[in-house]
Amino acid sequence: MKETALKTLVAGLALLVFLSLSARRAARVFPIRPGVAVAITEGEIPAGGALYNELLRDISVNESLQVSRALGEIYNIRRIRPGDAYSIYHTTDGVVLKFIFDPDPMINYVLERSSEGLAGYEEIPEFEERTVLLKGVIESSLYAGLAGSEITDPATIMRFADIFQWQMDFLTEVRAGDQFKLVFTKFYVDNKPVKYGRILVAEYSGKRGNYQAVNFQDRDYPDYYDLDGNSLRKQFLRAPLEYKRISSHFSRTRMHPIHRVVRPHLGIDYAAPSGTPVSALGDGRVTFVGWRGGYGNTVRIRHNQTYTSQYGHLRGFARGLKVGQTVRQGELIGYVGMTGTATGPHLDFRFEVNGVPVNFLTQNLPSAENISAANLSSFKERVLEVREYLDLLEDDFFLANPATIEEFRTYQEELALSQTEL
Ligand SMILES: [Zn+2]
């Protein structure tokens, strides 16, 4: 009895100690030589907290500075967020032996002490990438159809809509009863799902039409194609931002809102809240970043011999954006603002063909490049695999049930077994 009571007391105390450290912080101590031990502190950056201040709870100002500096060599300290995990291995006399920063389950940033001080490297934990199949029927919106039963994460839903953005508008053209099929990857560490990967195959069959997409790397980066190898993309986005409305159209005879004179407006004004992200309209090279008179903060991108786009009145630019840099379609280049001559926050967008401003909204935009002849045969092989996936997805096992092919096989075997038992 006495022993049990003691155990309960010890457990209770341990719990108290644990709770006082809070679930976000725990420490263990291992003796290494007489009088000195290594303490391992595991914690998370608290809301409103800074890594440096967290370090000061365990180690000296000098050691904290060393850790911050060494981490800064391999990780952008500004990207540290509340909830990011870390572990400090330090001796009880105050020397940091090792520091692990773990902002993402897929990568650790490790600092280790050597004779030259703390040196850092990136460590990729062992992970497994599994292929997951899923299908569903839309009841109201695409988002509800995919997210209704914790099927997948919002980013995957957005990517699905992005893939088919030139084929249909998922805000207005989705109808109840439309169906989708999805094959995507998911990353596991120690059998625990840690991250969604990319969409490998997507199919949408609805009132608007039937569309299929295959992820395939033909040129510099993977892209989406239909089963015949035609790119699903256009060379340019429909718009370089998510806007509220068009506040001024392309016109050669507009009354200028500030100068009160008739002046052509050779662009489109997209009204959007200040800070709205602005994306590169298409792949290209940045030819201007900076102040450009009445346009204020401006970016210009040359897409190819023919097409150039310009983005004006920006509040600011994407971090590190510079002239000469290549950008990809959809890549962040800046934020909506009202710098220069502007009456309210909006993007002044200009589109030029051979140096001449044209109305972007009435252009017949070229498609992105299709699968190249060099890769056509390997693409066709990929399509055969894709057809197998789509066939498997005919089975209602996958309906609102994301599962791997192995899980499907196990289910089939169990089903066969139960039928023979009957
Ligand atoms: Zn304008």
Summarize this structure briefly.
Helices cover 21% and strands 37% of the residues.
Write the layout of secondary structure elements.
Layout: H1 2-21, E1 25-33, E2 36-44, H2 51-56, H3 61-74, E3 85-91, E4 96-104, E5 107-114, E6 117-123, E7 128-137, H4 142-147, H5 154-163, E8 179-189, E9 192-205, E10 210-217, E11 222-225, E12 245-248, E13 251-255, E14 262-265, E15 268-271, E16 277-279, E17 284-291, E18 297-302, E19 307-314, E20 316-317, E21 326-327, E22 332-335, E23 346-353, E24 356-358, H6 376-392, H7 405-421
Antiparallel strand pairs: 1-2, 2-3, 3-4, 4-5, 5-6, 7-8, 8-9, 9-10, 10-11, 12-15, 13-14, 15-23, 16-22, 17-18, 17-21, 18-19, 19-23, 20-22, 23-24
Account of the protein in words:
- The protein has helices at 2-21, 51-56, 61-74, 142-147, 154-163, 376-392, 405-421, and strands spanning 25-33, 36-44, 85-91, 96-104, 107-114, 117-123, 128-137, 179-189, 192-205, 210-217, 222-225, 245-248, 251-255, 262-265, 268-271, 277-279, 284-291, 297-302, 307-314, 316-317, 326-327, 332-335, 346-353, 356-358.
- The protein is an alpha+beta fold and 422 residues long.
- It folds into 3 domains: 22-123, Nuclear Transport Factor 2, Chain: A; 128-225, Nuclear Transport Factor 2, Chain: A; 245-362, Glucose Permease (Domain IIA), CATH 2.70.70.10.
- Strands 12, 15, 17, 18, 19, 21, 23 and 24 form an 8-stranded antiparallel beta sheet that branches. Strands 1-2-3-4-5-6 form a 6-stranded antiparallel beta sheet, covered by helices on one side.
- The protein starts with a helix and ends with a helix.
- Residues 1-23 have low confidence and may be disordered.
- The structure holds zinc ion.
- The site of zinc ion has 5 residues, from loops.
